[in-house]
Amino acid sequence: MDAIYAQGLSRTFGEKKALDGLSLSLPQGSVFGFLGPNGAGKTTTVKLLTGLLTPTEGECSIFGLSPRSDAEKVHALCGVMTESACMYPQLSGLDNLIFFGKLCGMAHALAVERARELLKKLDLSDSEKLPAGKYSTGMAQRLSLARALLGRPKVLFLDEPTSGLDPESAQAVNALISEQAGQEGVTVFLCTHQLRYAQDLCDSYGILDHGFLLAKGDLSHLAKLAGCQSYASFRLVAGEELPGLEQKDGWFRRPLESQEEMPGLLRKVVGEGRCVYEARIETPTLEDVYFSFIGQSEGRTEQ
Ligand SMILES: Nc1ncnc2c1ncn2[C@@H]1O[C@H](COP(=O)(O)OP(=O)(O)OP(=O)(O)O)[C@@H](O)[C@H]1O
Ligand SMILES: [Mg+2]
Questions:
Q1: Ligand 1 site: residues with CB under 6 angstroms?
Q2: Which ligand is nearest to the CA of 158?
Q3: Digits of tens for pLDDT over the chain (303 positions)?
Q4: Which of 110, 111, 184, 223 could be joined to 228 by an S-S link, Cβ 3.0–4.6 Å?
Q5: Which residue has a Cα nearest atom 12 of ligand 1?
């Protein structure tokens, strides 16, 4: 059974179609990167999948349960970290987590233990007594992730979990996301603008624009769909050139159909007596693929 399923999921606000016919099925344990520009409909999707909003059309389920008719069971399965998490500002970080842990049905001692464990993992132990209202943006964001993880969710919805974080904290949060998926089998639905992190973390992606899912799949599938090429690239000693090859950022490169071509190309370049400092295969990055899809989509909407 799919951990996350959506069929023709749509949501309209007045005249605005925020989400238009989203269909998805994600198996348990997958880490799905949901990408798209501001206003694309990512947060709306998270709200629909977790029952915070009702769809105008279509349906969705979490492990076969409807967020509307089985709201309580769905909430027990899901951890949600949204852009604006609600904490009690006068309560300390620790007390907030204990409160929300008990709200999930944990006994006091267990809630304290789990809260402390998560505060430690997210490097917030030193601030556990500080009122949540006095947390910095990045600290509040980590506290909100801790809250999402309290009940050991089977499905984790993360809406830009690292957007306000410094590089060290972002790394810690990303490690925690990987751990959740790898060791705990948690299914992660990650909305993010940080494509480099997404490429490290996710096994498949959806690219959304103006409420439409432009494409979905793993990176190599998306790269093929987008027509993004791999290249054989060579960096030579200053002054040398490879005639007929495109030059980019000091590298000479030519399109590569398969990596099997590379050894022959390298032998040829060296055989011609050129001084090769570096040779590499450039495969399309998530950033390449993203801009290709979004560029094509912008082109269509401008016509
Ligand atoms: N409650 C609401 N009432 C009216 N319009 C809304 C509401 N919520 C979202 N929208 C609109 O729906 C569209 C999608 O918004 P959404 O927040 O889902 O985008 P997003 O992809 O999460 O963007 P961002 O990257 O900026 O977080 C936007 O045009 C937004 O203005
Ligand atoms: Mg959003």
A1: 13, 16, 18, 36, 38-44
A2: 2
A3: 899 999 999 999 999 999 999 999 999 999 999 999 999 999 999 999 999 999 999 999 999 999 999 999 999 999 999 866 689 999 999 999 999 999 988 999 999 999 999 999 999 999 999 999 999 988 998 999 999 999 999 999 999 988 888 898 899 889 999 999 888 889 999 999 999 999 999 999 999 999 999 999 999 999 999 999 999 999 999 888 998 899 988 899 999 988 999 999 999 999 999 999 999 999 999 999 999 999 887 766 555
A4: 223
A5: 18
- Do 77 and 50 touch, CB atoms closer than 8 A? no
Ligand 1, from 15, 42, 163: best to mutate by most atoms within 8 Å of Cβ?
A: 42
Distance 77 CA to ligand 1 centre (A): 25
Output the pTM of the full model: 0.91
Shared domain check, 189 and 244: no
Residue 110 lies in a domain: yes
- Return the number of other C-beta atoms located less than 10 Å from residue 203's C-beta: 15
Cβ-based burial of 86 (10 A; exposed 0-12, middle 13-18, buried ≥19)? exposed
102 in any annotated domain: yes
Residue spans of beta strands (DSSP E) within 63-177: 78-81, 155-159
For residue 202, the enclosing domain spans 4-223
Distance 36 CA to ligand 2 centre (A): 9
Looking up residue 40, the CATH number of its domain turns out to be 3.40.50.300
Residue of 10, 19, 38, 54 to test ligand 1 pocket, by largest number of atoms within 8 Å of CB = 38
> Are both 110 and 49 inside the same structural domain?
yes
Ligand 1 atom nearest residue 42's Cα: 21
Nearest-5° angle of CA 65, CA 70, CA 71?
Answer: 115
Instruction: Count the alpha carbons within 13 Å of 145 in the hemisphere toward its beta carbon.
Output: 32
CA of 160 to the centre of ligand 2 (A): 7
How many angstroms is it from 141 CA to the middle of ligand 2? Answer: 14
Please name the residue whose Cα sits nearest to atom 8 of ligand 1. Answer: 44
